[in-house]
Amino acid sequence: MPEASGQEVIVVVYDVVIVGGGAAGLSAALVLGRARRSVAVVDAGSPRNAPADQLHGFLSRDGMSPLELLSVGRAEVAGYGVELFEDRVVGVDFGFYVRLAGGATLKARRVLFATGLRDELPELPGVRERWGRDVHVCPYCHGWEVRDQPIGVIGTSALSVHHALLIRGWSDDVLYFPQSFEPSETEATQLAAVGVRLVAGTVAGVQVENDRVTGVRLESGEVVARSAVFLRPPFASPADPLLRALGCEFDETGFVRTDPSGRTTAWGVWAAGNVADQRAAVVTSAGDGFAAAVAINTDLLEEDIERAVLALTPA
Known about the structure:
- This is NAD(P)/FAD-dependent oxidoreductase.
- By secondary structure, this protein is α/β, with parallel strands linked by helices.
- It has helices at 23-34, 66-78, 127-130, 139-142, 160-167, 185-194, 240-245, 282-312, and strands at 9-19, 39-43, 83-86, 89-93, 97-100, 104-113, 118-119, 135-136, 151-154, 174-177, 197-198, 203-209, 212-218, 223-225, 228-231, 235-236, 269-271.
- It has 2 domains: 9-119 and 235-312, FAD/NAD(P)-binding domain; 127-231, 3-Layer(bba) Sandwich (FAD/NAD(P)-binding domain), CATH 3.50.50.
């Protein structure tokens, strides 16, 4: 793995620099490496799903540790000549010059952002400590593991009621704690119709005993017994300032605008995975990375052909 020194170093020239080494970034690096492109992956080493013991819904990798998946992925891409930088990107200038916190500058013909998202967890005692263990966001990722258990859903977003309705499919015992989002009359009817009960009162935290969630604690002091909790926190993208500086457009939901291949509105810039789609799971992000890599390689090929034809043209 190349190491950045204290002085600025320009590495000329990678075909592609990939910012982010999660499922999307490594999948793209694998495809591009196998296409014999020169590729660098820059990753700061803080994946969103690191707190989880296992990942799910990824065919042939169900139950694997997220960190193990990344370790295996890094070894695979390195086998195709992909260079891995354990560092953080602090700026990208047109050209493209990718500046790293450690002092290195990598030059690239194309850039792919695969930096994912960061969960903005509510300041409720117990949530951060149990995040990814028995406090979750995605029922498709962790619903099976807590099936038929008493589950609580804390209202932290406008989609929390839908969350509670969805989670009802995994358990007959689901309680909704409105917190910041009271259900509308229609939503309250829907919750009652499927057997999701509302709990009045403000949530003060998640009760943890013997290294596991045992309930949801209210400000009144009452603890409502639960063995798992779901909530939908707001998301933040660490790549947003970099993408905005490059002139990328964002949609009405606040996510960078891309075409189906992940191409942004800025020339030479792609985005894949959660950075462009908050709903993307690990397997989806890997697929997004594959699609972006094929599109980038095609774009580079067209440029290579154009240069070759120009080289044959008499002055």
